[in-house]
């Protein structure tokens, strides 16, 4: 070991080379190299050398690192390596708890906190009597992280200790989440230093008693405490209870008074409390407040999780609140008045609401909801209708009745619905054939999921007779079902006119014969270039690869990036040199493709290039490379 | 063969982030991947695509046509009248006086950057019209810009749903709005007096050329917009605001947003309940 910290002077390139040579070095030299490498500023180099160190450095040497008083880098590296060893390092760490040097004991406690192995609990309890207060403080924290209720009596003793230990104990009690600690924490709420932490600890423990303790405290001292924090904690506690509790005297009135406070955070916290207390006063106002801060339609705010009584009100609102109404319907389908759902379905949904509506309607099976579903479905833009298909099966009965009774439904929609409601293949086919071409295409677009029925249709004939009409829908189905028979027709169409869906479909069908056609599209420049390159990548094969290789050095950034990506998809070992040479390309997306390919073909020279990418400044590139190296 | 429903991969997230940051400054961190996914999903449906990558490719060749719906899909337009009023109140106490003295005589000019459907600039207008210091001005002008055309149309129309008025009391509602019933449910129309002096145009915070005026503003409001920005987007926005506000003018951000330590052009100052950033003399 080198002793005093050494100035770092190795260049990045040298580091990479050093890393690669490590496995073949003599032991002593290897350790020296690792000690140099862990001082490298590049996170990639550091993380690799730490990993190697964790695997290679003997216990005695590691202990020396942890004792390296004058060299923080080395000491931290020792700590990191011990953590990386995971459970393999467990027994060594336990031994270190008994070390004479309090600093080493401290490091060991930190590692044990990280490992979270419950076997450490007993040894940690014995450290609570260590003469060094820093060690004790860290041990208290550790017990909070990995202990259980058994450790509570040990911790309670520290509630009377000096304030650092007291604060650590309060936090640990919160982390242990045991209701046994509630009365003790309650006693500390008025403490100047520990009070705010005790409030937080109570909120973490949760439960009725913690709520009561904090609520009473707030009621008494609400003119002195930090209302924003305390009310936030109170709301959190209330939201965690299985049922709304009886509110302590005066609480609701005191909360009501703050509902129009100047500060938004206070208003919102109060609103959450009132809603969770189910007082029924000011619900509408409180909901408005919550809606102003909680913006996601797909996530029900915790304060109204139990409020099935709010369903009619919420469903009658717009935007977020209506979406929440539907989420509550999905939770409490039996408590839902069908009429409220029917009324809410009269409005066209915003994109945010669609998910919650679908969830709700899969649970509520009342016939009137089923028949309202039809109107809802008909009002949706055509391209969104497929998202409702699963519901059509759920409400089959009601929809069949409506379908029979309703003469206004246009023919293609009728065909779609009958098919989705279980019409036989023969019937569906016949009725599709009876439709005019435009209507038929509309219906086909929506029925592609019925693969069995779709396969029996005369696609080839349609494509030959009216490629313009049927091209897009046929291409979509061909991609979906892998219908390669149709590829020649798509190729013909592509020769006539460059259309994106044709380029995409030929790629998805892996149609080798379209490669020359696709290559031709690249010169002269086409706006569809990225799509063409992508399709070439999907098709692959020598001809496509050679075109893609050429495109990687076109000198045009956008073309290069997509060409690398496409080539990465179909590359063979013959192509890896191109990717090795591009590891310092200025475009991160090109480097990502490099990581992809070099990780796939693990020859030694590729590993060296991957190691360089593992130190890439763009996280996704470094991560991809690292994941290959680790594998 | 193609899967029926796609999910957004980390790689695609990085690509979309690159695009969104360069066009609008916006950024979706990894923990918001699902949010971006659900916002883009309807665009996949609408274009009959199955993979997010296909949609990314489409944006490469057809951005012009897709720009508007994309903008609408990814921006959060949440806004309401009288949101975080402490900043408007701070204007009343001394600030406005001081602003009018420092700027061009007889004129007060404000920019609301990321104005959504107009709630913020109109609220500012309502406040200003009640302040003695503003009354003597010959020109009181508020420009609202946003990248979302549909929102801007709503702002021009100035008819709002009850949720936009959620923090107003009864008295305020009837004072500022006339209620109207229409096909889409109850609506509240902002009275003409409070619309006067407010103008809207499409503008991108990242593109100073799209700002409606090159004359410097006395104050810029950009609230609840920059939280969705990437780091580079944020820096570019601040630079642009530094050019758009006159020396001594003010920049107001949302209460959870801060640019302390990010720029030398502005200096944070506390006014009552709120913080504003003053344009320093460089
Ligand atoms: C959450 S709203 C905030 C509205 C208002 N400022 C408020 O605080 O209530 C954000 C608005 O910023 C707009 N926006 C996002 N990026 C923008 C950009 N680069 N330029 C202009 N407006 C942008 C969005 O379209 C959206 O309407």
Write up what this structure looks like.
The complex is a heterodimer of chains A (631) and B (282). Chain A has 631 residues and is mainly alpha-helical. Chain A has a domain at 310-409. The longest helix of chain A has 15 residues, at 467-481. Chain A is built from 41 helices and no strands. Chain B has two domains: 10-74, Orthogonal Bundle (Chemotaxis Receptor Methyltransferase Cher, domain 1), CATH 1.10.155; 86-164 and 192-279, Vaccinia Virus protein VP39 (Rossmann fold, 3-Layer(aba) Sandwich). Chain B has nine helices and ten strands. In chain B, helix 4 packs across helix 5. Chain A binds chain B through residues 262-264, 288-289, 291-292, 295-296, 298, 317-319, 321, 351-352, 354-355, 381, 383-384, 386-387, 445, 449, 472, 476, 479-482, 500, 504, 508, 527-531, 534, 558, 562, 588-589, 592, 620, and chain B through 1-2, 4, 10-11, 14-15, 35, 38-39, 42, 45-46, 48, 50, 53-54, 57-58, 60-62, 73, 76, 78, 80, 83-86, 161-163, 166-167, 185, 255, 273. The complex binds S-adenosylmethionine (SAM). Residues 24-26, 75-79, 83, 114-116, 119-120, 145-148, 151, 204-206, 223-225, 254 of chain B line the site of S-adenosylmethionine.
């Amino acid at each position: 070991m080198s002793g005093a910290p050494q100035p770092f002077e190795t260049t990045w390139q040298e580091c990479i080379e050093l890393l690669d040579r490590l496995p073949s070095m003599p032991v002593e030299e290897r350790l020296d190299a690792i000690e140099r490498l862990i001082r490298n500023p590049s996170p990639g180099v550091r993380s690799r050398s730490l990993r190697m160190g964790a695997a290679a450095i003997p216990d005695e040497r590691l202990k020396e690192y942890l004792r390296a008083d004058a060299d923080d880098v080395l000491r931290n590296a020792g700590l990191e390596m011990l953590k990386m060893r995971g459970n393999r390092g467990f027994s060594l760490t336990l031994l270190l708890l008994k070390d004479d040097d309090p600093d080493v004991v401290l490091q060991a406690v930190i590692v044990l906190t990280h490992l979270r192995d419950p076997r450490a609990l007993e040894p940690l309890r014995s450290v609570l009597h260590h003469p060094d207060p820093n060690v004790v403080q860290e041990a208290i924290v550790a017990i909070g992280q990995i202990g259980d209720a058994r450790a509570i009596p040990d911790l309670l003793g520290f509630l009377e200790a000096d304030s650092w230990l007291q604060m650590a104990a309060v936090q640990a009690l919160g982390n242990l989440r045991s209701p046994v600690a509630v009365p003790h924490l309650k006693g500390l709420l008025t403490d100047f230093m520990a009070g705010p932490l005790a409030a937080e600890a109570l909120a973490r423990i949760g439960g009725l008693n913690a709520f009561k303790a904090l609520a009473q405290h707030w009621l008494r001292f609400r003119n002195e405490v930090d209302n924003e924090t305390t009310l936030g904690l109170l709301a959190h506690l209330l939201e965690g209870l299985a049922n709304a509790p009886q509110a302590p005297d005066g609480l609701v009135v005191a909360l009501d008074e703050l509902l129009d406070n100047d500060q938004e955070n206070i208003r919102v916290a109060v609103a959450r409390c009132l809603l969770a207390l189910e007082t029924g006063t000011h619900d509408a106002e409180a909901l408005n407040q919550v809606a102003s801060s909680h913006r996601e339609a797909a996530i029900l705010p915790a304060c109204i999780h139990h409020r099935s009584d709010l369903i009619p009100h919420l469903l009658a609102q717009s935007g977020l609140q209506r979406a929440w109404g539907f989420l509550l319907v999905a939770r409490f389908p039996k408590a839902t008045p069908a009429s409220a759902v029917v009324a809410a379905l009269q409005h066209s949904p915003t994109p945010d609401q669609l998910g919650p509506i679908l969830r709700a309607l899969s649970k509520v099976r009342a016939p009137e909801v089923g028949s309202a579903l039809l109107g809802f479905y008909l009002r949706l833009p055509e391209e969104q209708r497929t998202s409702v298909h699963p519901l059509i099966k759920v409400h089959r009965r009601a929809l069949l009745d409506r379908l029979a009774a309703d003469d206004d439904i246009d023919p293609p929609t009728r065909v779609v619905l009958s098919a989705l409601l279980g019409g036989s293949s023969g019937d569906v086919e016949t009725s599709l054939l009876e439709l005019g071409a435009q209507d038929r295409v509309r219906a086909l677009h929506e029925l592609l999921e019925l693969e069995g029925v779709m396969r029996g249709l005369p696609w080839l004939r349609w494509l030959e007779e009216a490629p313009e009409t049927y091209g897009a829908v046929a291409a979509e189905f061909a991609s979906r079902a892998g219908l390669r028979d149709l590829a020649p027709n798509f190729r013909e169409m592509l020769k006539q006119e460059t259309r994106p869906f044709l380029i995409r479909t030929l790629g998805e069908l892996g149609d080798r014969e379209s490669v020359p056609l696709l290559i031709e599209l690249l010169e002269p420049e086409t706006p569809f270039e990225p799509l063409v390159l992508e399709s070439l990548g999907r098709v692959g094969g020598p001809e496509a690869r050679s075109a893609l290789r050429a495109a990687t050095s076109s000198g045009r950034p956008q073309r290069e990036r997509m060409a690398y990506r496409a080539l990465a998809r179909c590359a063979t070992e013959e192509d890896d040199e191109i990717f090795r040479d591009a590891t310092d390309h200025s475009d991160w997306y090109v480097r990502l493709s490099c990581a992809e390919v070099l990780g796939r073909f693990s020859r030694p020279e590729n590993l060296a290039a991957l190691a360089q990418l593992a130190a890439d400044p763009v996280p996704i590139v470094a991560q991809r490379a690292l994941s290959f190296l680790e594998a | 063969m193609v899967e029926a429903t796609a999910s957004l991969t980390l790689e695609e997230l990085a690509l979309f982030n690159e695009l969104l940051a360069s066009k609008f400054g916006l950024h979706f961190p990894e923990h918001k991947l699902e949010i971006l996914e659900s916002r883009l999903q309807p665009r996949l449906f609408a274009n009959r695509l199955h993979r997010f990558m296909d949609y990314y490719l489409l944006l490469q060749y057809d951005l012009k046509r897709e720009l508007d719906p994309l903008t609408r899909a990814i921006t959060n337009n949440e806004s309401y009248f009288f949101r975080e009023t402490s900043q408007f109140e701070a204007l009343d106490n001394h600030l406005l006086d001081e602003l009018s003295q420092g700027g061009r005589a007889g004129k007060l000019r404000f920019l609301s950057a990321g104005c959504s459907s107009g709630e913020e600039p109109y609220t500012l207008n309502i406040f200003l019209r009640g302040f003695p210091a503003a009354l003597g001005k010959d020109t009181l002008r508020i420009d609202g810009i946003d990248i979302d055309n549909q929102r801007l149309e709503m702002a021009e129309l100035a008819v709002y749903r009850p949720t936009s008025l959620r923090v107003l009391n009864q008295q305020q509602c009837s004072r500022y709005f006339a209620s109207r019933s229409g096909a889409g449910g109850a609506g509240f129309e902002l009275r003409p007096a409070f619309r006067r002096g407010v103008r809207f145009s499409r503008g991108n915070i990242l593109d100073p050329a799209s700002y409606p005026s090159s004359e410097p503003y006395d104050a810029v409001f950009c609230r609840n917009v920059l939280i969705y920005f990437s780091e580079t987007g944020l820096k570019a926005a601040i630079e642009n605001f530094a050019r758009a506000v006159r020396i001594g003018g003010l920049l107001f951000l949302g209460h959870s947003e801060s640019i302390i330590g990010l720029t030398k052009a502005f200096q944070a100052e506390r006014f009552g309940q709120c913080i504003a950033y003053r344009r320093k003399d460089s």
